[in-house]
Design goal:
By secondary structure, this protein is an alpha+beta fold. Helix content is 17%, strand content 43%. The strands form six sheets. A 16-stranded antiparallel barrel has the order 19-20-21-22-23-24-25-27-28-29-30-31-32-33-34-35. A five-stranded mixed beta sheet has the order 1-4-5-2-3.
Length: 803
């Protein structure tokens, strides 16, 4: 019988006897293959007669065949060796194919579920690795359902088809097991109860909390990281988790965690060396650690990165290095010495912007506060990123600083654009009056140039309700259900790439008495031009806008008294009476100044910052027209992070309108559209106060249940928001509000504020804008119903609201 040796041994022997670097293949044949042709195996092994090979080539050939994933065993032997070369034998064992899968013993998990999880199909090759992975997947599925004692065995048997196998999983499910005990060993400072409070996901099962106690290894590791942060925060710098043991027994799962607490450290001395740009005192202030403070490792790393390193990078020392040396002293103190290598000031060589396929680059660059050739300052880059995000054209902004040499860097800003055009609905809904509002097409980034173009047409959808008033006499001009508005506006916030804003707008509106809750119809045509500018002082968040507006309005009513009761007797001489209606016409001229400051960190879900607006309007008087008043509004919104994605939002709004007196014989009015209305969704006009029906908070016409609007408004809102998704933005909220509207200062009662509370949800949808739903409970009565009972629950569907 011919002896067969492994090729590696024979080739080594052959090389030693022949002193050759390469061996020539005389012949090569294949054995053990059933479905794969000899030629395919030889081609993939890259072995053929007359080829000269080395030992490495043989190993490579074996690897080539293994990578095919078709064999359970591959060996190459030398069958014969001569002076001329060798004859090789490639011996393979092909993988069998899967005939079918059988599960036995699975009572708690359905066969379909297990089949879907392991994702094996009849006809695929069946390897030991595939079987092993399938067992692990099944085990994981059972352990997620708390069957931690599950045992799974895989059995293979001949299938119905030749060269196939039936795979049977024999499952012993065992009993459900949850965490019964968690033991901490080595903790002398903190009690087990105190330590256990740091575990967020790993909880003990209690008879009164049967859903708790699920064991998950990954979540246990995360909880242990939180535990380490807790110790580090309390000064235990040397804390370590030595070992963790998981013991599964008949009663459940016991977890043993072995700790090394180490000593509690306090800061003894702080020293700096190598610093020339900043003094020791400056660095001490930035570090915010004092002698005797507990050494909080988390705080230390944070202030070192965000405070100390930042003050160097904010003045151009991008390559500065600050290395802390922690030197224990006695058993409870640390000396901290910082070794600083300041290096050179760096300048910006290039600013590279990418990812803006729609937005023109100049729109982005005018939001930057630095230029090529300037000294690099990190705080300016951070400010620019915030300003780019506030454009609301991008889903994400990714900054990167690329070193060029010792004195230069490139700033790279990669952008991820999002859909900005909106077919925006601006409507509201409450349970009593139904839908109100309309829609608009808005292009916040028109032509990619950062311009805002808005074209809207709004129409009342359920305007026939008139607070249960009798239906008015119908005329050509009088239509209770009529409400429509057509408008066009264009704003360029950076004309000629400057800090200046220009804009113009035109609008036409009709308000039927049913929609406006007023005893007359209003037809109005208006236009405006505006100019604005971003300020550098007091800071870059300030902006001023100045608007000049003109308007012409007609007021139609069934009776003259409907007009004089609202506007006053001085309009009686201007009223034109026809067979179908009575009306008079006014013209308005106004000049408005708007000062805003917006430091929010995000346009859709701010977590920090504030936004306030101070708006003052002068109408009539020296400007001309029949509308004479001055109006002042102050609105302040601010955002405070609580924890993670939980945010507190607060809003205060106050406003006052004062009539400008003219000569006794001159006609002068304050138009209804200028007055303050409060209640409900605040759409299509007015201010939101959830929990009440639309526009029902404030003064009403004498002897009527129609709100007439007020001249003074006070409102406060607070919300606790939690974000569920960033793309698209989705968050839930709970809110509390209070506010009221008064006709003049003589009747103001600061304690008569209508209160409400409730819950809601918001989402920003591409091409639609903001969608929202609120349920609010009104705790007080209103003049509208006079029943002195709380308004109770009201619900509101919101489209296109700013917050």
């Amino acid at each position: 019988m011919k002896l067969i040796f492994l090729i590696f041994i024979q080739i080594i022997s052959f090389i030693q006897t022949q002193s050759l670097d390469k061996i020539k293949i005389i012949d090569v044949r294949v054995n053990g293959n059933v479905r794969i042709a000899d030629e395919d195996i030889l081609r993939n092994a890259r072995l053929w007669p007359e080829k000269e090979i080395t030992i490495d080539d043989i190993q490579k050939s074996i690897n080539y065949l293994w990578k095919l994933g078709r064999f359970s065993d591959v060996q190459i032997f030398v069958e014969e060796e001569t002076i001329s070369g060798v004859k090789l034998l490639i011996d393979v064992k092909e993988l069998k194919i899967l005939d079918s899968i059988i599960f036995k013993g699975n009572k708690k998990i359905k066969e379909n579920t297990l089949t879907e999880k392991i994702n094996l199909n009849s006809g695929q090759l069946l390897s030991e690795e595939i079987i092993f992975n399938s067992i692990k997947i099944i085990e994981k599925e059972y352990k997620e359902k708390n069957y931690h004692g599950v045992n799974i065995e895989a059995q293979r048997s001949d299938g119905k088809v030749e060269f196939s196998e039936i795979l049977t999983f024999q499952i012993n499910e065992g009993k459900k097991k949850k965490i019964k005990n968690i033991y901490f060993e080595g903790n002398n400072v903190f009690s087990n109860k105190k330590l256990f409070k740091n575990f967020k996901e790993t909880k003990l099962k209690k008879w009164y909390l049967p859903w708790r106690g699920k064991y998950n290894y990954d979540k246990l590791i995360e909880d242990q990281k939180i535990l380490k942060l807790f110790y580090n925060k309390n000064g235990f710098y040397d804390f370590e988790i030595i070992n963790t043991e998981i013991k599964v027994n008949e009663n459940g799962i016991d977890i043993y965690i072995y700790l090394h607490e180490g000593p509690k450290y306090f800061v003894r001395n702080i020293s700096w060396e190598g610093n020339e740009v900043f003094s020791d005192d400056d660095l001490d202030i930035a570090l915010d650690f004092n002698k005797g403070d507990i050494f909080d490792k988390e705080k230390f790393n944070l202030v070192l990165s965000e405070n100390v390193n930042s003050i160097y990078k904010d003045v151009g020392y991008f390559y500065s290095q600050i290395t802390p040396e922690l030197i224990p002293h006695s058993n409870d103190s640390l000396d901290i010495n910082f070794v600083i290598v300041e290096n050179d000031i760096v300048s910006i060589r290039k600013i590279l912007i990418g990812g803006n396929s729609k937005t023109h680059e100049n729109v982005i660059r005018r939001r930057l506060h630095f230029y090529p050739g300037e000294i690099f300052k990190q705080n300016k880059l951070i400010d620019a990123l915030r300003d780019i995000m506030m454009l609301n054209y991008f889903q994400n902004v990714y900054p990167n600083v690329q070193p060029v040499d010792e004195k230069n860097i490139d700033v790279v800003i990669d952008l991820e654009e999002k859909q900005t055009g909106q077919a925006q609905l601006s409507m509201g809904y409450n349970g009593y009056y139904g839908f109100t509002g309309g829609g608009a097409f808005e292009f916040p980034n028109f032509r990619g140039r950062g311009q805002n173009l808005s074209i809207s047409y709004q129409r009342g959808m359920n305007a026939s309700s008139s607070f249960n008033q009798p239906t008015y006499t119908t005329s050509n001009q009088n239509n209770n259900s009529n409400y429509q508005n057509m408008s066009f506006s264009f704003i360029d916030p950076g004309v000629f790439d400057t800090r200046n804003l220009v804009g113009l707008s035109f609008s036409y509106s009709e308000r039927g008495r049913g929609q406006s809750y007023l005893p007359f119809d209003i037809y109005s045509l208006s236009s405006s031009v505006r100019w604005g500018r971003q300020f550098k002082w007091p800071d870059r968040f300030f902006q001023g806008t100045w608007v000049y507006s003109t308007s012409t309005s007609r007021y139609f009513a069934d009776t003259i008294s409907d007009l004089t009761n609202y506007f006053g007797a001085n309009v009686s001489n201007s009223i034109v009476s026809t067979n179908t209606s009575n009306y008079f016409e006014t013209s308005g001229r106004s000049f408005t100044q708007i000062i805003t400051r917006d430091s929010r960190n995000h346009p859709e879900y701010p977590m920090i910052g504030s936004k306030f607006a101070w708006k003052s309007t002068l109408a009539g008087s020296i400007l001309g027209g029949d509308e004479d008043y001055h109006k002042h509004e102050f609105e302040f919104n601010w955002f405070n992070p609580i924890i993670d994605k939980l945010v507190m939002y607060q809003k205060v709004k106050t406003g006052v309108i004062k009539k400008i007196h003219v000569s006794k014989n001159d006609r002068s009015i304050i138009p209804p559209s200028t007055k303050f209305f409060l209640g409900g969704s605040g759409i299509p006009y007015g201010e939101m106060l959830r929990g009440y029906q639309d526009n029902t908070v404030g003064p009403f016409s004498y002897g009527s249940v129609r709100p007439r609007g007020g001249n003074i408004i006070v409102k406060y809102s607070t919300e606790i928001r939690y974000q569920f998704s960033e793309a698209p933005t989705v968050y839930a909220l709970i809110f509390g509000e209070l506010g009221n509207v008064w006709s003049n200062f003589d009747v103001i009662d600061p304690f008569d504020l209508k209160r409400s509370a409730g819950i809601g949800v918001r989402t920003y949808m591409p091409m639609i804008g903001l969608l929202g739903f609120d349920m609010g409970y009104g705790f007080d009565d209103t003049t509208y119903d006079e029943n002195k009972l709380p308004q109770g629950w009201n619900y509101h569907i919101l489209f296109g609201m700013p917050f």
